[in-house]
């Protein structure tokens, strides 16, 4: 079944559309995601790159590590996407940038070994110390 989602940044300068299935959805607790979001965790949804289209504006991209590229709005700073070189066919969109984030709830937690000591994961979802097994 074809799914369509739209989302964008806080100020509305950048908008995107996803047409296709969500392959995975989770919440990341790694240090880099926490820094990028200025939050204790970062919810994401993995989709095929071919399903993702910018429909307004142009996000700014930067290499957050040797293997990863993130995008955000250059005007308001909202984080929008994450791509890893090892999986060029997929892109993670930041779930909270969707117009309806409740449409794509997380199904697991990753990089829990990096979480803050004061972060309590108690929602009953699977928790992985690093990345989710394939």
Structure description:
With 134 residues, this protein is mainly beta. The strands form two sheets. Strands 6-7-8-9-4-3-10 form a seven-stranded mixed sheet. Strands 1-2-5 form a three-stranded antiparallel sheet, with no helix packed on it. The radius of gyration is 14 Å and the shape is globular.
Strand-helix topology:
Elements: E1 4-8, E2 15-19, E3 24-28, H1 31-37, E4 42-48, E5 52-56, E6 60-63, E7 68-72, E8 79-84, E9 90-94, E10 109-110
Parallel strand pairs: 3-10
Antiparallel strand pairs: 1-2, 2-5, 3-4, 4-9, 6-7, 7-8, 8-9
Stretches where pLDDT is under 50 for at least 5 consecutive residues are none
CATH class: Mainly Beta
How far is it from the N-terminal to the C-terminal residue, by CA? 23 Å
Content of β-strand: 35-45%
* Rg from Cα: 14 Å
Short characterization:
The protein has 134 residues and is mostly beta strands. 5% of the residues lie in helices and 37% in strands. 30% of the residues are buried.
Search tags:
134 residues; mainly beta; Metal Binding Protein, Guanine Nucleotide Exchange Factor, Chain A; seven-stranded mixed sheet; 1 helix; 5% helix
């Amino acid at each position: 079944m074809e799914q369509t989602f739209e989302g964008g940044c806080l100020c509305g300068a950048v908008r995107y559309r996803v047409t296709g299935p969500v392959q995975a959805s989770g919440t990341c607790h790694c240090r880099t995601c926490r820094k990028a979001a200025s939050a204790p965790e970062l919810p994401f949804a993995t989709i095929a790159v071919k399903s993702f289209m910018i429909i307004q504006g142009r996000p700014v991209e930067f290499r957050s590590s040797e293997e990863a590229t993130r995008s955000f709005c250059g005007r308001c700073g909202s984080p929008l996407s994450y791509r890893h070189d090892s999986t060029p066919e997929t892109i993670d969109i930041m779930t909270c940038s969707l117009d309806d984030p409740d449409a794509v709830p997380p199904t697991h937690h990753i990089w829990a070994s990096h979480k803050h000591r004061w972060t309590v994961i108690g929602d009953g979802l699977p928790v992985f110390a690093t990345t989710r097994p394939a």
